[in-house]
């Protein structure tokens, strides 16, 4: 697979900027090879909906200038809608359970939460960070802005925190016990 495609895959998977140093380490290439791969990728995006943003130290995928208005209109329409029950459920899981992977949130809710998480991220209610236990996935957690909006300094100050957190943990344990062959993410904390 060409280096430009491998760069593209890593930038897409990261969902944000990656340092050139990290890209070179991950791809096992030189600075010159990386520069050539980035140049090739940038040319491929010309006239499309995506653009490659490259600074002295990092690279990232972004919406192309020509497509920016379309994306802005869609985001404004989505943000104009209510969070809905699904959004409230995801927020409750993150507040009362703590940082969780999307797979864990999906498991607790019993449905796919990709669009709900994207909506909450866009609204600044939750944030994502790398998972120190598994570099292939992210952990989602409430933002300080959400906590401030709720009038608390930390989730433990929420109403009936201990009771609800305990019931959620008990639910997860009972589900794990019913699925003896469940994958590792579903059975561990």
How many DSSP H or I helices?
10
Name of the top-level CATH class of the largest domain: Mainly Alpha
Main sheet summary: 3 strands, antiparallel
Order of helices and strands: HEHHEEHHHHEEHHH
Parts with pLDDT < 50 across at least 5 consecutive residues: 181-189
Helix percentage range = 55-70%
Number of strands: 5
CATH topology of the largest domain: Arc Repressor Mutant, subunit A
> What is the count of distinct domains?
2
Specify the CATH homologous superfamily of the largest domain: Winged helix-like DNA-binding domain superfamily/Winged helix DNA-binding domain
Gross CATH architecture of the largest domain: Orthogonal Bundle
Task: Kindly provide the radius of gyration, computed on alpha-carbon positions and rounded to a whole number of angstroms.
Answer: 20 Å
Strands of the largest sheet, in order across it? 1-3-2
Percent of sequence in beta strands: 5-15%
Q: Estimate the global geometry from the Cα principal axes.
A: elongated
């Amino acid at each position: 697979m060409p280096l430009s495609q491998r760069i593209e895959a890593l930038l897409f998977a990261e969902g944000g900027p990656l340092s050139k140093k990290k890209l070179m380490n991950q791809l096992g290439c030189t600075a010159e090879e990386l520069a050539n791969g980035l140049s090739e990728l940038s040319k491929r995006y010309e006239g499309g909906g995506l653009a490659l943003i490259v600074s002295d130290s990092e690279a990232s995928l972004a919406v192309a200038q020509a497509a920016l208005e379309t994306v802005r209109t869609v985001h404004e329409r989505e943000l104009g809608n209510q969070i809905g029950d699904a959004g409230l459920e995801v927020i409750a899981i993150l507040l009362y359970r703590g940082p969780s992977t999307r797979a864990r949130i999906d498991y607790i809710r019993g449905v796919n939460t990709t669009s709900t998480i994207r909506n909450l991220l866009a609204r600044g209610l939750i944030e994502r960070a790398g998972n120190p236990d598994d570099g292939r996935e992210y952990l989602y957690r409430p933002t300080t802005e959400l906590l401030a909006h709720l009038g608390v300094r930390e989730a433990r100050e929420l109403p009936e925190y201990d009771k609800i957190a305990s019931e959620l943990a008990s639910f997860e344990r009972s589900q794990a016990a019913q699925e003896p062959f469940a994958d590792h993410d579903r059975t561990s904390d």
